[in-house]
Specification:
mainly alpha; Arc Repressor Mutant, subunit A; two-stranded antiparallel sheet
Length: 132
Amino acid sequence: MSPAPSLPLAELPGRPCPIAAALELVGERWALLVVREIALGATHFTDIVRGTGAPRDRIAARLKVLEHAGVVARSQYQSGPPRYEYRLTPSGEALIPVLDALLEWGKVHAVALDDPDRERHYPSMTTLKDKR
């Protein structure tokens, strides 16, 4: 596996910093939802699309970007027609605590108190990863 691409900070707009560089790679909404789905065990394209609710073309584009960034790896599991499965690389697995932080923040700050699904159990991504 080749190393993940790095972004020269000087080429980023505004106040360049590692946060800005990270957002260039994984800051688009569907990117982190793709990582979430793979972390939850969805390794096939159709399952990732279903779990994110995004259009197929968006997920296809996002998977290419994430693969190029070294966040996910793709391997063929069927040749006719060619089909691929996706897994998180060590770089992708390093995003799991970020997803956990967003989960906790979202429960407190992004979900209305009267939302009927608010009390639903949302497992920690770290816990799920440890079970695999």
